[in-house]
Write a structure and sequence with these properties.
The protein is α+β, with helices and mostly antiparallel strands. It is built from 17 helices and 42 strands. It has a six-stranded antiparallel sheet, with helices on one face. Strands 25-24-23-22-21-28 form a six-stranded parallel sheet. β23, α6 (420-437) and β24 form a beta-alpha-beta unit. It is globular and about 90 Å long. The structure holds beta-D-mannopyranose. Beta-D-mannopyranose is lined by residues 188-190, 386, 412-413, 450-451, 515, 538, 627, 638.
Amino acid sequence: MSVTEPAARPVAVTALATLPLDGEWTLRRVAGPVDTPEWATDVELPATVPGQVHTDLQAAGLIGDLDVGLGELEQRWIGRSEWEYSREFQWDAGSSTDGRRIDLVADGLDTFARVSLNGTVIADTTDQHIGYRWPVDGLLEDGTNRIEVRFTSAWDAALEREQAVGPLPSPYDAPYPYVRKSACNFGWDWGPQYVTAGIWKSIRIEQWQGRLAHVRPLVELDEGHGHATVRVHAEIEDAFGSGRSATVHVELRDPEGRVVAQAEGAAGAAGAAECKVDVDSPQLWWPVGLGAQHRYSLRVRLERDGVALDTREHSLGIRSVAIETPRDERVGDRWHLLVNGQRVRIRGYNWIPDDPFIAEVSPRRLAARLDQAVAGAANLLRVWGGGYFATEEFLDGCDERGLLVWQDFPFACAAYDESDEMRQLIRIEAEQAVERLAWHPSVAVWCGGNECTWGRTDWGWGDLLGDRTWGGGYYTGLLPEVIAELDPTRPYLPNSPWSGSLDVPSNDERSGPVHLWDVWNDLDYTHYRDHDPAFVSEMGWCAPPAHHTLRRVVPDGALLPDNPGVVHHMRAAEGMHKLARGLQPYFPVPDDPDDWLFQTQLVQARAEAAGTEWLRSRERCAGVIVWQLNDCWPGLSWSAVDADGIEKPLYYALRHSFAERLATLQPRNPGGPNDPTGPEGLELVIVNDGIDGWAPVARVRRMTFAGEVLAEATVTLEAAPDTTARIALPDELGLAVDPAAELVVADVDGVRSAWRFVPDRASSVPTARFAVESALDRGALAITVRAETFVGETCVFADRLAEAVGADARELIVDRMLVTLLPGEETVFRLTRRDGTPIDSLPAAASVRGALRAANDRVRG
Ligand code: BMA
């Protein structure tokens, strides 16, 4: 393998001379399978770097939008073909000074590439997650030079390795575990099988005499927060190979730009320097909601004989992070994430690649998605191991917003072989990632991978594996070794889920983070309340995307679960059946597409709200990371935000259930979730994740759907920061006389929670009657709904009004959803354009009504 050096990302200033090679290239298909379309056999086209073959073919108009219809099935040949990227560039030999080294630097190649310069092969690459640097002195010519990067099929390479290493268990039929490339690129249960190839990150030529190969700042904060130490580890490369007289200067500026510390270190014989700077009374970086996100700036300069050879500048947050596992006598260990010594109850989302063609994720789109996470009341994103390591843009965005990041290493749901070749690649991946990510205060947890140890302990892998390796050596050996060496300041978790040891089933609820999938897979969502885990790092419920999004890719036929186009966009195992099963207690089999769409989305929202609020109301559970925030494909999935960036009802439900201050009605069951003898009735629980105490006055009513109040009380609760408080409701409030006709409503600080005693179909809830009025109001479309009857979980779907207000569906957003109105009450939904430009056309009343739905809109028993 020709990895000579992990590529360091130049973070800001650099004294190196750089010739960027991004931009226009030429792409040519070299070889491929027999079912390649005729037009493509010798195709040559302009290409963009960074990018991938699929998007180049699309940009050239040679293939269409593969997401539409069955487009996915027509592009398999692309991932099975060989492709060559090439370009010419000018080089002025006179510009290279003596004693300089000249490197070709590729931050990322996807994946099996042969790189040549002027006809000489420089390297063969085999790992998408690695950055490469190769010396090319002597290969460059004065004048015109030609670079070629030829990609062979990752699919074929995977099949070849499958033969060599033997079968490895995984839940998918594609050969992803055999190669070091984003696993979900081979298709997943929410994404297409677009097997990509291309130069997916920047590529350039760098000339240097001395360079900061890596700079790794490690931050330590003392317990009292009075003092912090930043140890800056710099690895230096010297073109003369001596390293002798190079010096590293470090300067730290506080958030106001004042220099607060400086240090200097000489590069030792091994080409490394360590400088330590001390900060008294540091201004801390806090997760969102718990304080400011103060950031210092660190400047590192490499000098020799008074000449600056290389410089790095990057922001830096001062904070500590740790995992604590206090003993819980009742159940097992708890699992707390501490930031600055303080427990942070986690309200998080799992993050998947935002596009199957990853170079397509623009900074604007990324920022929009991170803003959605924060506005959705999250404080953590888990970068799931089936995708990619987080990018700089992602991490900068999380640093700024106070979003914590849990980074999985790239392993997902499968056994992985531990051959020398793999171990070598995985060590380089890990070292590069840790060195790159260590800068970011948001990065809080390193995790070995997704569901790989769970697979080993519970999914019956033994038969297929025999005594062959399966990856355990990575999660409990190689990766923690890399972390201990390069970043001992952050906690490491061998896998998600994890229960403390390879001898214990990884998803054992008695300790560590769990994945709660039994509910979506087999049960009614009320069964989330059977669980009492210490932490949940995945749980989810599937539903279709917004109407606009699904219609865009399924242009024909009714959007119902028997439409082949809809089926094609559902990848979850037995997904349609599970959706239908989820509806059964609540709604009769929908035969109207609008009912199906709304009701499946509504059950998704209810399910995740029920699970999240139950878990947050438990003392034991210190965090919930919902599966999943985003989508990469306009399919049916567990996401809260669909592939077009449109929020599903789930998003609004979670914004409520994740609120820093939550009041929730829960079944009263102090004996524990599985105690059948626990008293019946309800309790009101308040959860306070904020930094101030909370003592709300709650108005609780038991009433009929017709609006008759049967019992009412005003209760006061008090919760100090990071605590919950609960009060059992008296029987007249918490027990129904006629469960089918009654509900309990708790209004707390202007926020409503409602509890229904029986599922919709068993209840005598009336069909909703309401009046709707709309008006243009300060750039918004204001839709007033006046309830004549009980109107449950009222939603306005902005995408359904796009045409009527002359906007693109993706541009619009409504301020809330799932509003429950009692007879006589009214509410106003505000629909706006995301970019703030005003809406200036008033849609017809029928369009507004068509965009509005309530749970009891059309009641069928
Ligand atoms: C989880 C994830 C993914 C998967 C999701 C939904 O376990 O780790 O592998 O997409 O479930 O099935």
